[in-house]
Design a protein that fits this description.
The protein is α+β, with helices and mostly antiparallel strands. About 35% of the residues lie in helices and about 25% in strands. It has two domains: about 160 residues, Ribosomal Protein S5, domain 2 (2-Layer Sandwich), CATH 3.30.230.10; about 110 residues, GHMP kinase, C-terminal domain (Alpha-Beta Plaits), CATH 3.30.70.890. Strands 1, 2, 3, 4, 5 and 6 form a six-stranded mixed beta sheet that branches. Strands 8-9-7-10 form a four-stranded antiparallel beta sheet. Helix 6 packs antiparallel against helix 7.
């Protein structure tokens, strides 16, 4: 039995670590997974182009889906991705979604979207891939558009069409930031301001929310804001840290995207917003 799954990356409007509620937008950076189920037990994970990266999350996602349907098989998991790892662009959430979907496909089973998101969140915490379960990231990856979540309660509060822009320029540094190294006590100090950022996002003030959020997390993590400032000077609608970084995302109009990309250097990525199916 072989199944396939696909999911997208996302960028942060409001990071949920400080205050528990998050807001994210899907972007068209893709992750693909293939899961082959064979007689026997255990898991084998092959991640194309990522030698040495931890494989626990993928293996645990496949196992969790099989446990959900009381099925025991040996799983061979193969993944490939366009999403840079450990830069704040939701590579783990997308990989988990893709593996969950591929395992369901291999089994010929279905789960509703909320069930998938909750399974993703629970496994992400157990695997050490997320602090809060990153339900906001998982929802933007799976569903697209702009999502608002209460990560602690595992609730998707709202999902809307994203209307501010249809393109995003992303600066991706070489440096990675791992979740285990985060200064959570410092991040918690910014809770009141991050709560304000979430309220701004909820009211549709996404550009203001994104910049306030980025200033808070940039300060807590000791990250330079220079790339965000460059993007703003070049005409972006808003710019700031995505996730816990170090990637910086800039929201751009079509007419300004080239200028903004040039301001962020030759390695900048320019991608479409992923809207998904908005009902």
């Amino acid at each position: 039995m072989i199944g396939h799954g696909e999911a997208r990356g996302a960028i942060t409007i409001v990071n949920a670590i400080a205050a528990g509620k998050g807001c994210a937008v899907g972007v068209d950076l893709r992750t693909w997974a293939e899961v082959e189920l064979l007689p026997g037990k255990g898991t084998e994970v092959e991640m194309e182009g990522l030698p040495g990266e931890p494989a626990d999350l993928a293996a645990m996602c496949a196992s969790a889906v099989m446990d959900r349907f009381s099925i025991a098989r040996r799983a061979v998991i193969r993944t490939r991705s366009q999403i840079p790892v450990s830069r704040g662009l939701k590579s783990s959430s997308a990989a988990a979604n893709a593996v969950i979907l591929a395992t369901l496909d291999a089994l010929g089973e279905k789960m509703d979207d909320l069930e998938i998101l909750r399974l993703n969140a629970d496994v992400s915490i157990r695997a050490g891939a997320s602090v809060t379960g990153a339900m906001d990231d998982a929802a933007a990856s799976l569903l697209g558009g702009v999502v608002y979540t209460d990560n602690g309660a595992r609730v998707l509060l709202r999902r809307d069409e994203w209307t501010l822009c249809d393109r995003v320029v992303i600066h991706v540094p070489e440096r990675m930031i791992r979740k285990g190294s985060l200064p959570r006590a410092r991040i918690a100090l910014y809770r009141p301001l991050v709560e304000k950022a979430f309220q701004l996002a909820w009211e549709g003030e996404h550009a203001k929310a994104m910049m306030l959020n980025a200033l808070c997390y940039g300060a807590a993590l000791g990250l330079d804001q220079e790339m965000a400032v460059r993007a703003m000077e070049a005409g972006s609608l808003a710019a700031g840290l995505s996730g816990t970084g170090p990637a910086v995302a800039a929201l751009v109009s079509r007419e300004d995207e080239r200028k903004v990309a040039e301001s962020l250097g030759p390695g900048a990525l320019t991608v479409d917003v992923f809207q998904g199916e908005i009902s």
